[in-house]
């Protein structure tokens, strides 16, 4: 009996631990060996390539993320030199010929800053890589040409603006909901700005009218964090206050907000009437029309709220406000508009009811025999023909506004937008309106 047990034990010990004849075992071994081989191939051949590509993509960020020496305005613009910030409407590149705008027509020699608006603020923050990809598909030359302008004129600042076309912009409220969201937003914006080679941001509709106090406090904290990031890397941060904002109704609030920005832009145009033919940016309002919003009032409200003089940029528009009059014979400012169809006929190239670009207005004056007149109270011109009436800016009105800015030592003017100027010179000198502002400032402002 003992010998039989010894024999069985010996047989068990002599058998292999794994039955290599088992199909299941063979299949498992094959799959294991294949997985190991794939892992080796990926680790040795594929992974280094991915890492190398990633490092190449990150290299611009690593270089740009080095803190730069932040220059004061006096250091790069000179003392008491008003700025000229030139906004470019991206839709002007899709105008029908011959008025299709090109980058060669941007008057960069007359501007201290060139600002390109980008639409889709929510998408811009949510997925910046996808946003860039989409914009490069829809506007293939936009980013490349912006960089080219910078290379041609190193002193020129290239900025991008966000939020201008967002009617109810919840982007900043979302980013200010928590400190985690704020930090993520600021880091992503900084990374995107540096990675694309831009010099800063212009932010619209950050402080909309009627925002709850809690939302506003969170947005101010967001702005403060963003300012810290931008200041560290020498970037420019600008906030825009729309005409309807209630920020300036609160004493010192404007000053508090401006502690965290380089400049504050006050929109001093777009004061459109729906009942009477009036001016979109009068120097002073007409009391007979019971209108109290004008160029001077917009500036004074901002200053009274604590916005520093040296940070205040006041905007002007090169688009005119056009109307359809009720009485063809009554062409004076304050004339009653046609009920139900008060907006003027769209222009041939801009195709927007109630709005005419300056190059469309001047062509009417030169080639279509429209009548021009001047209003001494508004210090603005207007033109009319039949039942069509338009108020706009010309050389004389912009000279008065430029004098206003310079005499009060304001930071400068933002031109909204340069693609509405007579940039082809169809009516005279090219870019005559921007040139007018530049000539007024040139004794104290010259771009190298």
Automatic annotation (TrEMBL):
The keyword Membrane applies. Gene3D superfamilies: 3.10.50.10, Glycosidases. Keywords: Membrane, Transmembrane, Transmembrane helix. SUPFAM superfamilies: (Trans)glycosidases, Chitinase insertion domain. InterPro entries: Chitinase_II/V-like_cat (IPR011583), Chitinase_insertion_sf (IPR029070), GH (IPR017853), Glyco_hydro18_cat (IPR001223), Glycosyl_Hydrlase_18 (IPR050314). Residues 82-444 form the GH18 domain. Pfam families: Glyco_hydro_18. The chain crosses the membrane at residues 28-52. GO terms for biological process: carbohydrate metabolic process; chitin catabolic process. GO terms for cellular component: extracellular region. GO terms for molecular function: chitin binding; chitinase activity. PANTHER family: CHITINASE, CHITINASE 5. This is GH18 domain-containing protein. It comes from Rhipicephalus sanguineus.
């Amino acid at each position: 009996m003992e010998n039989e047990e010894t024999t069985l034990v010996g047989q068990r010990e002599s058998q292999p631990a794994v039955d290599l004849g088992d199909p299941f075992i063979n299949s498992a071994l094959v799959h294991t060996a294949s997985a190991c081989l794939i892992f080796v191939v990926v680790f040795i051949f594929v992974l280094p390539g991915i890492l190398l590509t990633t490092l190449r993509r990150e290299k611009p960020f690593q270089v740009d993320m080095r803190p730069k020496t932040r220059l004061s305005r006096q250091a790069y613009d000179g003392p008491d030199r008003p700025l000229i910030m030139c906004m470019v409407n991206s839709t002007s590149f899709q105008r029908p010929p011959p008025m299709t705008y090109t980058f060669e027509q941007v008057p960069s020699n007359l501007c201290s800053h060139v600002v390109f608006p980008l639409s889709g603020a929510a998408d811009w923050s949510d997925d910046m890589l996808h946003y860039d990809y989409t914009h490069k598909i829809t506007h293939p030359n936009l980013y490349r040409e912006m960089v080219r302008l910078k290379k041609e004129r190193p002193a020129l600042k290239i900025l991008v603006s966000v939020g201008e076309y967002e009617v109810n912009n919840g982007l900043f409220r979302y980013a200010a909901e928590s400190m985690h969201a704020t930090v993520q937003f600021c880091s992503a914006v900084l990374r995107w700005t540096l990675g694309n080679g831009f010099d800063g941001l212009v932010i619209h509709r950050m402080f909309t009218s009627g925002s709850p106090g809690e939302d506003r406090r969170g947005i101010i904290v967001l702005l403060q964090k963003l300012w810290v990031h931008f200041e560290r890397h020498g970037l420019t941060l600008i906030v825009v206050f729309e005409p309807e904002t209630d920020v300036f109704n609160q004493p010192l609030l404007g000053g508090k907000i401006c502690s965290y920005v380089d400049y504050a832009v006050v929109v001093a145009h777009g004061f459109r009437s729906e009942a009477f033919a009036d001016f979109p940016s009068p120097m002073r309002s007409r009391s007979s029309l019971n209108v109290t919003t004008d160029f001077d009032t917009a500036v004074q409200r901002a200053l009274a709220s604590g916005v520093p003089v040296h940070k205040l940029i006041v905007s002007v528009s090169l688009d005119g406000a056009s109307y359809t009059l009720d009485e063809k014979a009554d062409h004076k400012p304050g004339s009653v508009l046609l009920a139900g169809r008060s907006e003027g006929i769209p222009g041939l190239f801009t195709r927007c009811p109630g709005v005419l670009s300056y190059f469309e207005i001047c062509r009417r004056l030169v080639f279509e025999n429209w009548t021009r007149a001047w209003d001494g109270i508004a210090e603005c011109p207007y033109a009319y023909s039949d039942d069509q009436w338009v108020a706009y800016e010309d050389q004389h009105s912009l000279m008065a506004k430029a004098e206003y800015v310079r005499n009060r030592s304001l930071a400068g003017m933002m031109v909204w937008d340069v693609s509405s100027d007579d940039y082809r010179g169809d009516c005279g000198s090219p870019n005559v309106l921007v040139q007018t502002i530049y000539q007024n400032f040139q004794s104290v402002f010259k771009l190298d």
